[in-house]
Amino acid sequence: MSAMLMRLRGLVRKETLQILRDPSSIAIAFILPTVLLLLFGYGVSLDARHVGLGLVVDAPSAAATSFTAKFRHSPYFTPHDFAAEPAAETAMKDGDIDGFIWLQGDFARQLAAGQSPAIGLFVDGIDANNARLIENYVTQSWADWVAQQAALAGVANPDPIDLEPRIWFNPAVSSRDYLVPGLIAVIMTLTGALLTALVIAREWERGTMEALMVTTVSMHEILISKIIPYVLLGMGGMVVSVLIATWLFGVPLLGSLIVLGLASSLFMLASLGMGLLISTIAKNQFVAGQIAIITTFLPAFILSGFIFDISSMPAPIQLLTHVVAARYFVAILQSLFLAGTVWSVILPNLFALLAMAVVFLGLARLAARKRLD
Question: Which helix or strand (DSSP H or E) is residue 100 part of?
Fold first, then answer.
């Protein structure tokens, strides 16, 4: 046992020195998460802000001015006035605006007569998400304005339902608070899998693997010596990502740090297992890196629930997401950051991560043989 520990300590020291002498490992572990978080945190948003909205008022009136004022003072829209509907339609076709509202000539007359005038809403549906946001906002603004006018006139509210929404877990409805926790999982997938996918492949390319093969160390000792330093390196990148998320972007972290550390460790082991499995098969850094990106990063980005809702996917694709480790880590992160330590969510996903870590590390050990073929 003592001899094995001495061999393992020597291998870990060798791997640690190799990491410290290799700037690419440090860059992947610390610089890459920072850059991706900054890019996504500042550059990617699912919120509709400063949307170009055309306003067409055929017959200006006090009522039309009152209604359009809701859009002129809204942070979600940048209003553009048009004299006629064809001009607004042309602007939307040219991409200058994303939609327009048309108040026709009898708008004020119908209101004065106690009728409910129809307003025209034309939306560019190329960006479906943006189109739905515009439609919902305009519809709600119209309902609020009608109720306000009814109250000013001293008549009963035409809408008998008094809706008081309460949004849990993300009260500001900020896409950044939703995206950043999931992005951490995607980044850690890329970091863990890509780092280790290059490890053994690099040993084969440099010829140092042959030197290890003729020593008394066993294959599982070689694998353990490569896992330990990269787990620590990956967890360091995880700490940096969490600090950026909470301090720079202001994403709340409501859950337990201990649970976060445990989940991150299990996920890192699963990612390292995938990377080791790839590197033992590829034996070439370029091929191993490409396989790692295709089989780990892209599924984590598309099939983890990071951006696309899993329940909205076709049933076969939903089944496929169960073999993506990032799916379980994203669920844990979103719960810990936004909802707290919800055990009904965390425990099943923790067990799933544990099972995937065991499976991938086991497959990596089976694929690794102490032979030169």
Answer: strand 99-103
User: What's the longest Cα–Cα distance across the chain?
Assistant: 96
Helix (H) or strand (E) holding 91: helix 85-93
CA atoms within 13 A on the CB side of 41: 21
Q: Please tell me the distance from the alpha carbon of residue 41 to that of residue 172, in angstroms, as a whole number.
A: 16
Whole-number Å distance between alpha carbons of 333 and 263: 9
Cα separation, 112 vs 91, whole angstroms: 32
Instruction: Give 38-47 pLDDT, tens digit per residue.
Output: 887 787 766 6
What value does the mean pLDDT of the chain take?
83
Residue 177's SS3 state is helix
pTM here? Answer: 0.79
Per the CB < 8 A criterion, the answer to whether 38 and 246 are in contact is no
Whether 350 and 260 have beta carbons less than 8 Å apart is answered as: no
- The C-alpha atoms of residue 177 and residue 194 are separated, in whole angstroms, by 26
The 10s digit of each residue's pLDDT in 291-326 is 988 888 889 989 998 888 888 788 899 999 999 999
User: Token digits for 77?
Assistant: 């829209």
Return d(Cα 206, Cα 238) in angstroms, integer: 30
CA distances from 89 to 53, 99, 125, 231 (A): 11, 8, 13, 57
